[in-house]
Amino acid sequence: MTRAARFWRSREGALVLPALVFYVLVYVYPLSRIAGWSFFDPDFTLKFYREVLAEPAYFKALGNTLEISVLVTLTSLLLGYPLAYLMTTTTARARRVVTVLILVPFWTSVLVRTFAWLVILGRNGLVNRLLLDVGLVDAPQKLLFNMFGVQVGMVQVLLPFMVFPLYGVMSRIDLNVVRVARSLGAPPRKVFLHVFLPLSMPGVAAGCILVFLLAIGFYVTPALLGGPGQITLATMIDMMITTFLNFGFAATLGIVLLVVVAGIFAAVSALLGLNRIVGGGSAQ
Amino acid sequence: MKRREILKSAGIVTAAALTGPFFHVRPARADQGELVVVSWGGDYDTALREYVLSAFERATGFTVKLDAPPETAKVKAMVQSGKVSWDVIMTDTPAVQALVKDNLLEPIDYAAVDKAKLARIPRELQQPYALGQRIYSFNIVYNTNLMPKAKHTRNWAEVWDAKNFPGGRTFNFQGGTAPQLEAALLADGVPVDKLYPLDIERAWRMMDKLRPIVTKWYTSHAQAIQLLSAGEVAVGNTIGPRGIAAKKQGAPIDVEYNQGKLASDNWCLVKGVRNKKIAMEFINTALDPKMQAQIAQKVPYGPSNTGAFEFLSAQEAADLATSPENIKQQFWWNTDWWSTPGPDGKTPRESQGERFAKWMLS
Asked: pLDDT by residue for chain B (362 residues), tens digit each?
């Protein structure tokens, strides 16, 4: 019996099989169809790829997409890390309250939440009214249809995806290690930098990867809250399909995005050691 | 739209599965005695049912089933598979052209329409495969708080002039609507009768000038109305009847008809329509001036039969694209120009749409 055959007869094989079948049906198969569209029209052709590579506009859209996603990831990390730290160190009761507060927005659809920002951040919106009334500004500030609006809208949606992986890792850090460092005379800043932060890194990596990947595919929020500087590749794909009925070209843009993201992923894992990050949920 | 489709078909499948053993489930279109009419749904369909469908059903004994929306791809799938369940559709001119190109429509039988009605319908709306029903236009729509009625932008040149008419602008991008090159050329002083064929390069130079004053390139006409109602922008280019509908609900919005681009939703017969005679009878009924007036009182689209204005007050007429006063200030969108392929095989609709996306990203 070959090793592969032995694997599928083993307990592990049986456990993996249902997920594998599902994954092949709803992910691998449709994806291969889309990859097919990008190479055939109806015979094999590279014309879609040539067209994409020859057109600076698509690089600009790709650049916009990556810029938005990196910024959203960093902002989510800056806001999410202290939150996860609070959840780790506070009482069980307070932790429940914080968890509920983070989860409540999940009950509302992204579209509705995005529309709400139009009301809150608008020229005559709550924020501008407040700024004007308090006298901090003397004309309404432009908070929408630019990078700021997109960041606010997306971070608000994606923050939980940063907080929960962080909390998952932090909650398993043995706080006795921290106490030992303190009792040996290390100042709090040093304890954090040399003990807690390194131990929480797997959570940082998991949260960042999750948020970044979700941000890459965001469509509604940049389209509604962004300006021309925030036209993403997802927007271009939508236009290719709905306006021009050009499925081959849309598929090509999708594959290009996939390859770029896979490349980034490979580079990051080579740099940080992905096995440690993904496999290393525990902080040991 | 798509999701509703999926839910609907999922519902039908479930219903069919549940009732299958007990009932013979019939397709949407019955044999004789039923006509399936497909429109865009919403308030307009409600008014259509109330005024046209009821009268038609009483007069002919046929029942009319309304469906929505008239997706081009669906018509194509129906005709090609030979299972045509739609008889009459109402759709916009670009869709009509796409359908005609693929030979998916039946010609309109003009002999079956009352001569008196045809005499009152603008010539532009009487096409071989399409007969106009409701008219809208791409207008200057403005916020009345930011631009008081006495000092609002009255033509596209003034919309382009942010110095004398301050405030943000909103124009379409995405959503399938072509770039507003006609408005750009009118803003540059091109006379309406010299508009087509469009001077494309000149139009894009004017688009360059518009760009800095656009607050938001809207993705849907609904978003344009939201931006205008909220005072996010002072003025924009969007569908007039939507602005009027918002105004009637109390939004600080009004419509300037001068230099508006007129467009139509038209009745068409799907290829393979089972009872062409009764389908034409339905279209003939829908063109009734009084019924069109009653619909216009509920939903502010311009009636295609100008005879309708004899049943409408001056105040009601003022808010409709086809009133004698408004129609003469506007021009008909030349959809033939937009759909005639150039040397590269692409129609201006395609090539200018692509240029629009690249321009936006440049």
From this structure: 444 444 444 444 444 444 434 444 444 444 458 999 999 999 999 999 999 999 999 999 999 999 999 988 889 889 988 999 999 999 999 889 889 988 999 999 999 999 999 999 999 999 999 999 999 999 999 999 999 988 999 999 999 999 999 999 999 998 778 999 999 999 999 999 999 999 999 999 999 999 999 999 999 999 999 999 999 999 999 999 999 999 999 999 999 999 999 999 999 999 999 899 999 999 999 999 999 999 999 999 999 999 999 999 999 999 999 999 999 999 999 999 999 999 999 999 889 999 999 999 98
**Which class for B272: exposed (0-12), middle (13-18), buried (19 or more C-beta within 10 A)?**
middle
From the list A61, A231, A243, the residue facing B176 with the nearest CB is A243
Q: How far is B351 from chain A (nearest CA, A)?
A: 10
Q: Is B161 on the interface with A (CB under 8 A)?
A: no
Phi, psi of A100 (to 5 degrees): -60, -45
How many other CB atoms sit within 10 Å of the CB of residue B331? Answer: 18
Residue in B112, B154, B360, B184 with CA at minimum distance from that of residue B255: B154
| Model confidence pTM above 0.90 | no
- A69 vs A215: CA distance, rounded Å: 5
Going along chain B from its start, the domains and CATH numbers come out as 2-134+264-332 (3.40.190.10), 136-262+337-361 (3.40.190.10)
Q: How far is B176 from chain A (nearest CA, A)?
A: 5
B354 and A118 within 8 Å at the Cβ level: the answer is no
State yes or no: ipTM above 0.90. Answer: no
Q: Spell out the domains of chain A, with CATH numbers in brackets.
A: 58-279 (1.10.3720.10)
Q: Report helix, strand or coil for B266.
A: strand
**Residue at B36: amino acid letter:** V
10 Å CB burial of residue B264 (0-12, 13-18, 19+) is buried
Q: Chain A residues within 8 A (CB-CB) of chain B? A: 55-57, 60-61, 118-119, 122-124, 144-145, 223-224, 227-228, 231, 235-236, 238-239, 242-244
Sequence-ordered list of residues with C-beta below 8 angstroms from that of B255, at least 6 positions apart, any chain: B139, B140, B141, B142, B240, B243, B244, B247, B319
Query: In a 10 Å sphere around its CB, with 0-12 CB exposed, 13-18 middle and 19+ buried, how is residue B124 labelled?
Result: middle
